[in-house]
Write a structure and sequence with these properties.
Layout: H1 2-34, H2 38-41, H3 54-63, H4 68-100, H5 106-118, H6 123-132, H7 139-162, H8 167-175, H9 180-191, H10 193-208, H11 212-217, H12 226-236, H13 241-276
């Protein structure tokens, strides 16, 4: 017992130390640079600001480049919400069917689902398809792309979780007269709440922080996202390093809040899916 407690204490201490090195030190560096003057921040030193101007930098950053940070946050919010809603809706239904229905097409579908995790996205053919559908450079097209990129992960997670739900629940609902849609919406979907929370938080953070997708498929500056806003910010205001770090701090806030409030649900959902799968 004493040896197990000692081992748990050592593992916990190492985890805390790694968290401090990986997260708290970089975050503190960003926060300190965001509170400095432009000249002081350009030195990129890990030191206290001689003249704190955190609020002034916050206001200047939000108003710089015609409010590009505001536009980026709004666009990223629309992109994230639209993509995650599609992932949850399609992933839950596909995962349920793959877990319950046995057919000769099941292995083929599973092969393509796994291929979605392995095969890298083809940028040029995707642009060609979007141009044919008149969706290239639009937020609707970008939502479809993000949902497609994350759908394989969501389907696998939902399928693993549904595999742990007793089939007797389905049979009881059918005996009560429930059709396929009512069975899924009224019986199965409420039981998927832990894995839905996991999918929402994990994919929302990924889509919100995605840089490559919007860079290739959203060339219009009016639809800039948060990561592209940082890229533009750095190029046009290289002398205002303090505002660049303030922009990094601002766009870090939404994912950080989501993690603080839903970290237990994330771990619980992933653990439930892994154990039941």
């Amino acid at each position: 017992m004493i040896r197990e407690r000692r081992r748990a204490w050592i593992v916990g201490s190492i985890a805390i130390l790694v968290s401090v090195v990986v997260f708290l030190i970089p975050f503190s560096f960003v926060l300190l640079q965001a509170a400095k003057t432009p000249a002081e921040a350009s030195n990129l030193q890990f030191s206290w600001p001689t003249n704190w101007q955190f609020i002034q930098n916050f206001v200047d950053t939000l108003n710089s480049n015609d409010g590009v940070v505001w536009r980026a946050i709004i666009n990223s919010a629309i992109l994230t919400i639209g993509s995650v809603v599609l992932m949850v809706a399609i992933g839950a239904m596909a995962g349920y069917v793959l877990a319950r229905k046995r057919s000769k097409w099941g292995p083929v579908v599973n092969f393509f689902v796994l291929a979605g995790l392995i095969v890298p996205p083809a940028v040029v053919p995707t642009i060609w398809v979007l141009q044919g559908l008149k969706l290239f450079g639009t937020m609707q097209g970008m939502i479809l792309i993000e949902a497609t990129f994350g759908l394989s992960f969501c389907i696998l997670l939902f399928r693993a979780f549904v595999g742990g739900i007793p089939r007797e629940l389905d049979e009881a609902a059918v005996l009560d007269g429930a059709g396929p849609i009512r069975l899924f919406a009224r019986v199965v979907l409420p039981l998927l709440r832990p894995v839905i929370v996991t999918v929402v938080v994990v994919q929302a953070v990924f889509v919100f922080n995605d840089f490559a997708g919007p860079l290739y498929f959203l060339p219009n500056s009016d639809q800039v996202t948060v990561q592209l806003a940082l890229y533009t910010f750095q190029g046009q205001n290289l002398s205002f390093v303090n505002q660049l770090f303030m922009a990094i701090f601002i766009i870090t806030i939404p994912p950080l809040i989501a993690y603080i409030f839903f970290n237990r649900q994330i771990v619980g959902g992933i653990t439930s899916g892994a154990v039941k799968g």
